[in-house]
Write a structure and sequence with these properties.
single chain; about 160 residues; mainly beta; SH3 type barrels
Length: about 160
């Protein structure tokens, strides 16, 4: 089962926070950061170390995948994939609904809601982010849309 976790930029110091997503009735968004082990002050594993307010527009969910360096892949990340000929392509990880051709008795089109790759140059939505359908198992995270907007050449949908 895929681990469900989120990240968002703190409203206090603009640093990334990772953990559980908290949505409050007043519209504010927080990330609950969990402690990884027992500490001297009695916090144990899976208890919240902090709950930090984050900028809602920066929140992204973990896809369940990691890049070639073992870095977790989140919604909003920009990855570099290399074709067989060595050509690098930048792709943005997004979440939404796309049309997909499905092989059944004959070719059918269906709509699925999923993480998917978008080419920022053409704005074309490509294939879903699925482990065995990754464009290249050696992809590398090179930035994200919040810290590196210059990597997004195309217009956002």
């Amino acid at each position: 089962m895929r681990e469900i976790k989120f990240r968002g930029k703190s409203i206090y110091d603009d640093k990334w926070k990772y953990g559980d997503l908290h949505l409050h009735n007043d519209g504010s968004v927080c990330i609950g950061v969990t402690a990884s082990a027992w500490t001297d002050d009695g916090i144990q594993n899976n208890d919240y170390l902090t709950i930090t307010g984050v900028k809602g527009e920066t929140v992204g969910q973990f896809t369940g995948l990691q890049d070639k360096n073992g870095k977790d892949l989140y919604e909003g990340d920009i990855i570099s994939c290399r074709d067989e000929d060595g050509t690098a392509t930048l792709l943005v990880v997004e979440f939404g609904t796309i049309d997909r051709i499905v092989k059944r008795n004959e070719l059918n089109m269906c709509r699925i809601t999923c993480f998917y790759y978008r080419n920022p140059d053409t704005n074309e939505c490509l294939f879903p982010v699925i482990d065995d359908e990754c464009p290249d198992v050696r992809f590398e995270i090179v930035g994200n849309i919040h810290d590196n907007p210059e990597l997004q050449k195309g217009d956002k949908k």
